[in-house]
Amino acid sequence: MRLTILGGGGFRVPLVYGALLGDRHDRRVDELVLHDVDAGRLGVIERVLRQMAAGREDAPTVTATTSLDEALEGTDFVFSAIRVGGLEGRTCDERVALDLGVLGQETTGPGGLAYGLRTLPVALDIASRVQRLAPDAWFINFTNPAGMITQAMQTVLGDRVMGICDSPLGLGRRAAHALGLPGDATRFGYSGLNHCGWLQTLVHDGVDVLPTLLDRPDLLLTTEEGRLFGPEWLQTIGAIPNEYLYYYYFTREAVAGIRGSAETRGEYLLRSQADFYRAVGDSPDRAHELWVRTRRERDETYMAEARSEGEERDAADVAGGGYEGVALALMAAIARNERAAMLLNVRNGTTLPGLPADAVVEVPCVVDASGPQPLSAVPLTGHPLGLVQQVKAVESLAIRAAQEGSEALALQAFALHPLVDSVVTARLLLAGYRERIPSLDAVFR
Ligand code: G6P
Ligand code: MN
């Protein structure tokens, strides 16, 4: 089986290759094709993979190309983790918003909208190439904002494209572990949108044990979410939110935290990434070792704005299963027709009442050779439903804005986002992003 990774020069690609190397099944990926628009970064990552494969006769073959069509033609699976505008773009997503006093973050709030707007035309172009060159391929989208991008790509590829994220599985597992239960023996009643969902039930042996966990502040505090939101807030809302909900529930503190740090996440990653690619250039033989070290530091500093100074995030916690595990499990379930339950971003249909049928939602699914099917989900009611409806309306406006090249629709998207507090701010955001990010400006020309 062949897997094509778009964004193949990206820093997380060795995680995926590591997962492939660990797969001993006879029906597994034995051919990996990396595609990237940046030949230099592609070469560096290829080198890391070669060092990982050294001495392993059964290692999947690796080829790298800067030709998108060549990478896609006849492939079985596509895994997309591209970053249109690069990390420079990410820093602009953050700074333009922060300078206006609103949240500047990779996927949530106006920063995520800016990121989405410039990514949509590229994602739609990729979708039509896949349709032409690999019509039977399954497309696994990790490119953020994953819900919005997956929804747009479904207009071309239908249900063959699904979105993945590591955060809901991580949340479910952390909650199960806090109660001393193995993650795979519990059913996660998680529903919402990507980076905007809630664990509302945790079923073990037919019993919902989430209330037991919510009653125990000491156990809640052993989880990332318990520390992030505080046990009292989790008890108040009666659910455990995805960690990205921090930006909604604690907007003011999040904005102050990011503005108060010396650099944003994007700025930190830009620096750490430049150091890494440069260091590998200087010492090519140490590529893998340098990658391991850089990765550890990146994991430990993840979401630093949400933690008090000196408090480090457990690297194992970020990595726990990780997105490469989700991607591999998904491919295995499809290729081997092994039914597996997973939390995925798929077409809503009638799964979550109150949302449009074509909205992409993040819900429990069962996956087999015919692809993912949403299972019956815990419905959203009250404030989660209201928030999700508003955010989805904004995402749908952004998709139409990109499809039609419409400034008016883009302005509406910014203005109606729950984390943008004025139409005046929305105008300034759109103008600021267009001025600083050429690929975003190009959407309207
Ligand atoms: C998690 C999220 C991803 C997000 C990433 C950011 O894995 O699920 O959607 O892109 O964190 O991590 P970074 O190290 O790039 O800040
Ligand atoms: Mn994610």
From TrEMBL:
Q: Name one Pfam family in it.
A: Glyco_hydro_4
Q: Which GO terms describe its molecular function?
A: hydrolase activity, hydrolyzing O-glycosyl compounds; metal ion binding; oxidoreductase activity, acting on the CH-OH group of donors, NAD or NADP as acceptor
| Annotated site, Increases basicity of active site Tyr, chain positions | E106
What cofactor does this chain's UniProt record say it requires? Answer: NAD(+)
Please tell me where Mn(2+) binds in this chain.
C165, H195
Q: How is the cofactor bound?
A: Binds 1 NAD(+) per subunit.
Source organism superkingdom: Bacteria
Going by the UniProt record, its keywords in alphabetical order are: Cobalt, Glycosidase, Hydrolase, Iron, Manganese, Metal-binding, NAD, Nickel
Q: Which family does it belong to?
A: Belongs to the glycosyl hydrolase 4 family.
The entry's protein name is 6-phospho-beta-glucosidase
